[in-house]
Amino acid sequence: MKTQQEAMTIRRPAVDDKTLERLRALEKRVLWLSSWIIHNANHLRPKRDGLKVGGHQASSASSVSLLTALFFEILKPEDRIAVKPHASPAFHAIQYLLGNQTRERLESFRALGGAQSYPSRTKDHDRVDFSTGSEGLGAGITIFAALAQEYLRRKGLVPLDAPTGRMIALMGDAEFDEGNVFEAMLEGWKHDVRNVWWVIDYNRQSLDRILDDHLYDRIEGVFRTLGWNVHILKYGRLLQEAFARPGGSELKKWLDACPNDVYSALVYASGASWRKRLAADIGHARGVRTLLADYDDAALARLMTNLGGHDMECITEAFASVEDDRPQCFIAYTIKGYGLPFAGHKDNHSGLMTVEQIGALREALGVPEGAEWEPFAGLGNLEEDVRRYVASRPLAMCKERDRKAARITLTDRITAPGGKTMSTQEAFGRVLTEISRTQPGFAERIVTASPDVMVSTNLGGWVNRKHIFGTKPRGDVFSEFGLAEAQRWTVSPQGQHIELGIAENNLFLLLAALGLTAPLFGVELFPIGTIYDTFISRGLDALNYGCYQDSRFILVGTPSGVTLAPEGGAHQSITTPLIGIGQPQLISFEPAYADEVAAIMEWAFHQLHEKDGSSVYLRLSTRPVSQPERAMSEELRAAILAGGYWLVPPREGADLAIVCCGAVATDAMEAYAAVQEDAPGIGVAVVTSADRLYADWSARSAWRQGDRGDPPHVERMLAPLSPNAQIITVIDGHPLALSWLGGVRGQRVRPLGVTRFGQSGNIPELYREYRIDSDAIIESVACACLEGAGRPIAN
Ligand SMILES: Cc1ncc(C[n+]2csc(CCOP(=O)(O)OP(=O)(O)O)c2C)c(N)n1
Ligand SMILES: [Mg+2]
Question: What share of the chain is helix, strand, coil (3-state, %, to 5)?
Answer without folding.
Answer: 45, 10, 40
